[in-house]
Structures are given as structure tokens and as C-alpha cells.
Amino acid sequence: MLLAERARWERLLADPSLVRTTVEEVLRFDANSGFGLPRYLSEEIEVGGTVLPRGTTVICSMAAANRDESAFGSAAEMDLGRSPNPHLAFGVGAHSCLGQALARTELQVVLEVLLRRLPSLELAVPAGGLERVEGLAVGGLRTVPVRW
């Protein structure tokens, strides 16, 4: 995402203080659009004007939630400085990922090192040619050919 639009990479090079908010925005923006996460309702709840009874199993789409215009202004746009950014990439509450602090730290450190050591980094193929890997809980790219 950061290399697909060179202006994003250039903005980070010009202002590395955006690394933390950029990582959060990347997590929000690229939530896996797979099947979703099943959840069991322990109490009756209203969703979109429909009452769902206790005991119902629902599927929660984190990707849809992370693009909700009522929660994120200009949700379809990537904003490297978005703050606050209450995305659901790692779940929330009792269903929150235990490894999220480590994942955030790893992403921030790798991005800081790439910016510092390989400022000329760019995709070696058009972004549209990158092959996605889709799954129920995680996704990504099969390969990311780059040059510098």
C-alpha cells in the first residue's frame, strides 16, 4: 500500500514521525475481507433495526467495520496521520489478539528501518499484478518484488 502510491512513501520519508499512525492506518485499511469471525450472542441485541435473539450466531466482518463511514471519516481513503484510529484489526475486548503489541512494534520497527536504509525502495512490478493470498483470518501478498 505504501509503495503502490509513491506519494505515501515520500510522505513518510519526509515525516518519519508518521510511522506509528501509518501502521495503524495500514492495519485498518487492509483488514482481511475473508469470511469473517463467528460470534455467539450472549444477550439480545438490535443491529440495523433488527432484534437478534440471545443464542444467535453472527458473522462479524472486521473489513466492513474498518471501512464504516460512521466510525471513520473518509473511510475509503488511506490517511497516514489518522488519529484516533479505533480499528478492529486485532479484535476488541475479550476477543482482542494477545500478540497485537508485538505485531505493532514489529511493523513500526521494520518500516522505520526500511525508510532509513532503503529510501529509494519501490515496487518492481505494477501494484495491480501483485497476487493476494486470502484466508479466513489472515491474508496478504504471495510475493512483493521490490527494487532500490
Query: How big a fraction of the residues is strand?
Result: 5-15%
Identify the CATH architecture: Orthogonal Bundle
Question: Which residues form runs of ≥5 with pLDDT under 50?
Answer: none
Return the string of H and E elements.
HHEEEEHHEEEE
What integer value in Å does the Rg equal? 18 Å
Distance between the termini: 17 Å
Helix % is: 25-40%
DSSP summary, beta strand count = 8
Family: Belongs to the cytochrome P450 family.
GO molecular function: heme binding; iron ion binding; monooxygenase activity; oxidoreductase activity, acting on paired donors, with incorporation or reduction of molecular oxygen
Cofactor: heme
Keywords: Heme, Iron, Metal-binding, Monooxygenase, Oxidoreductase
Helices and strands in order:
Layout lengths: L5 H9 L4 H11 L7 E4 L4 E3 L2 E3 L4 E4 L1 H4 L34 H18 L4 E2 L8 E2 L6 E2 L4 E2 L1
Antiparallel strand pairs: 1-4, 2-3, 5-8, 6-7
Helix pairs in contact: 2-4
Question: How does this model look, in words?
Answer:
With 148 residues, the protein is an alpha+beta fold. It has one domain (6-147): Cytochrome p450. It has helices at residues 6-14, 19-29, 62-65, 100-117, and strands at residues 37-40, 45-47, 50-52, 57-60, 122-123, 132-133, 140-141, 146-147. It has a two-stranded antiparallel ribbon with strand order 1-4. The protein has a two-stranded antiparallel ribbon with strand order 2-3. Strand 6 and strand 7 (140-141) form a beta hairpin. Helix 2 crosses helix 4. The longest helix has 18 residues, at 100-117. The radius of gyration is 18 Å and the shape is elongated. The two termini are 17 Å apart. The mean pLDDT is 91.
